[in-house]
């Protein structure tokens, strides 16, 4: 009993990992090595492996820099669904934008209240972080529940994957990203555009940060560019529905 209580109360850091991958050449998903089987074991995902030319647009929102409204304008005009992973700070500082995300049909995902490294906190602390975000969004919008969770800082281990699954969450990683969050080192919309287009592949889960001026200016061109290459934009709920189809149709 003592050892069990220690496991539940004390912070645990066992084989912590930081999500990353080796970029692929051409239009294939990246190589994630041992991470793939590990997150699949706990029902997480980073890509849609079906081979369909469908992509999934996701954003991380830790704080507001003035560009999210523009991002939402583009998504509305282009009729593109997205998932926004938000923190407690974002909820408190940008209530109107959170409401708009839900009102316009987007999914709001959980990025924790304080953005801690989950591999360094207890199960109870993790639950408090996630519960607080989910309840705050439910109080603010018509979205009553959350299914998707993106780990703060991209850190995870077997414990955090198992705990969040037990809490009813699905870990949502990504297969396309680039250094876009440093607001003091923006390189122009062309850089953002090429950073995404050079990595795009069937089933891509794309991670962008809305604090990026470059992303806001490049988003419309990214959408048009991917559609020109034959890609369709889908929501993460679409990906989950595909995972529920009988085995033999989709094996993931």
Automatic annotation (TrEMBL):
Source superkingdom: Bacteria
UniProt-listed Pfam families: Polysacc_deac_1 (PF01522)
Family annotation (InterPro entries): Glyco_hydro/deAcase_b/a-brl, NODB_dom, Polysacc_deacetylase_ArnD, Spore_PdaA
SUPFAM superfamilies in the record: Glycoside hydrolase/deacetylase
Domain NodB homology: 53-234
Protein name (record): Delta-lactam-biosynthetic de-N-acetylase
Source organism per UniProt: Thalassobacillus hwangdonensis
Lineage of the organism: Bacteria, Bacillati, Bacillota, Bacilli, Bacillales
